[in-house]
Recover the amino acids of this structure.
């Protein structure tokens, strides 16, 4: 009969507690969130209106219905995606790009989303940036998995690590299992760093898109000289550096900075 020491029992209990804690964190992070009746009803209303819509104003109403769902606290890649489609039909290219970008966080591998985003970027005179940051070469999965998927995968890897650690104790520290566990631990650490990168990009950095052609200024007022030779076109993407008195200080192309009125852009 296999005897389990008191120390091993404590280890099993600690491992179980750790797994439960992680699973609770996953649930609280929003993974697996289901729409309630009101959200489902409003979503269906938006879908029905989209099919019947013919005018720009009607498509704007569809986009507004999707925004009401989002403002209610329910975030979904499908809602952002459909909102982007409505904005495109409403000839609001910049707002469509902003919606598609947010949809990408939830649906990073969706081919239809990718195609529609590229179409919107082309309509604004832009294209996807071909240069890939060095870190994205290392973390090659960074933009191929959603943050929720990474959290779930990290939970799975953590469970495997704890189980293998328990096996090592049972078989007197088998070297092969130790090596396998070390590799999994390394993958877990890299995945954790990837999740932190997502958190920083989505929670710490304010992204934005120009929604109407505007002249960027060297300061937060129309009295300042233009910051660039050409006006910024509808659909130009940027990062917000500062906001003062209804003006955003923005950075585009990772180097150029200027100021634009907040009403001329949408941020997320």
């Amino acid at each position: 009969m296999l005897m389990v020491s008191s120390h091993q029992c404590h280890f099993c209990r600690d491992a179980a507690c750790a797994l439960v804690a992680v699973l609770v964190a996953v649930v609280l992070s929003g993974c697996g969130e289901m729409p309630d009746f009101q959200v489902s009803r409003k979503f269906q209303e938006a879908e029905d209106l989209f099919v019947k819509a013919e005018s720009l104003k009607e498509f704007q109403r569809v986009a507004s219905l999707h925004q009401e769902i989002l403002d209610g606290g329910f975030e979904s890649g499908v809602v952002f995606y459909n909102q982007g489609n409505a904005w495109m039909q409403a000839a609001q290219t910049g707002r469509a790009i902003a919606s598609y970008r947010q949809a990408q966080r939830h649906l990073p591998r969706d081919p239809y989303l990718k195609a529609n985003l590229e179409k919107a970027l082309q309509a604004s005179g832009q294209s996807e940036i071909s240069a890939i940051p060095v870190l994205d070469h290392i973390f090659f999965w960074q933009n191929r998995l959603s943050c929720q998927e990474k959290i779930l995968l990290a939970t799975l890897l953590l469970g495997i690590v704890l189980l293998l650690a328990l096996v090592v104790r049972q078989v007197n520290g088998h070297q092969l299992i130790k090596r396998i566990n070390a590799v999994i631990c390394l993958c877990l650490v890299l995945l954790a760093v990837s999740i932190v990168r997502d958190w920083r990009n989505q929670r710490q950095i304010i992204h934005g898109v120009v929604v109407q052609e505007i002249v960027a200024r060297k300061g937060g007022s129309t009295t300042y000289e233009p910051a660039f030779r050409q006006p910024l076109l509808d659909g130009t993407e940027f990062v917000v550096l500062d906001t003062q008195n209804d003006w955003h200080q923005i950075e585009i192309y990772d180097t150029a900075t200027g100021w634009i009125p907040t009403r001329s852009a949408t941020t997320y």
User: Anything to note?
Assistant: The longest helix spans residues 175-204. DSSP finds nine helices and five strands in the chain.
